[in-house]
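**User:** I keep going back and forth on a fold encoding question. It is easy to fool oneself when nobody else works the same problem. Could you pick a protein and write out its sequence and tokenised fold? Could you put it straight underneath, so I can go through it closely?

**Assistant:**
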Amino acid sequence: MPALSLGAAFSTFTTHGKLLAVSTAHPDISTIVRGFAEHLSILKRPDYKESQVRPHYIDPFWTALGWDVSNAAQRPPQDVDVTVEPSMDTVDDRGFASREPDYRFRVHGFPRFIVEAKKPATDLDHDKDGIFQAKRYAWSAGLPFAILTNFAQFRLYDTGPKPVHNEPSRGRIDEFALNFEDYPAQWDVLVATFGREAVAAGSLEQLRARLHKVRPGRRLRTPDRMLVDLRGDEPVDRVFLDYLQVYRRHFAQAIYRENKKEFPDAGTLQGAARLTET
């Protein structure tokens, strides 16, 4: 991601031998980044838990981007911006399961993306389980993006392709591979992409279109609109139908093996068709 130029809106401070530029135009994120940097050695201890980093750093990060994480506006449950640990059905090679992502971000009740949180001691780039978990949540829900963060790191994934555990880099969007030191300089970009108002105005659809080189004016499939799919996408409904087809053939073959005498013409095209209709 191209860095924004540092001008009068930025000040600097040094922590742990590193010079950080902090935006004075965005005091909320400046305060959060400064505090995180000052306490980094403590925050990266193994005993500092995910349940601590979420309210202290991750929730304020998204609040600064305009999301009502705590439902301060007291919207009804069906209209809240952010649902925390919602129960969701997910699909993998073992079938269906009910799981709970850390955050689901919504606009007008429609989910837009998933955020999965980890503790700061976790190196997100080497956390295969965490990457797969985040991508699986979003992919199973038909959402185009998943974010994995521990505040120290921010990683964005395109979840159109089916997630594969042993391919953690699949779908990773490198221009949004940020560390917390990058947040102040990239804050305008983050607001324009993941800010609540920007997402409501279609910023994520524009990002997908740019990533997939979709021609201007072409409309994309989104959670609240059944529009065109992008090349390379593997929607969960299509994968599930393929999954059913595999088991349909498996059961038909098992029935045939155990009842060969009942299907003397199964080797012919017409017989095979009748077998699968049985």
In short: The chain is about 35% helix and 20% strand.
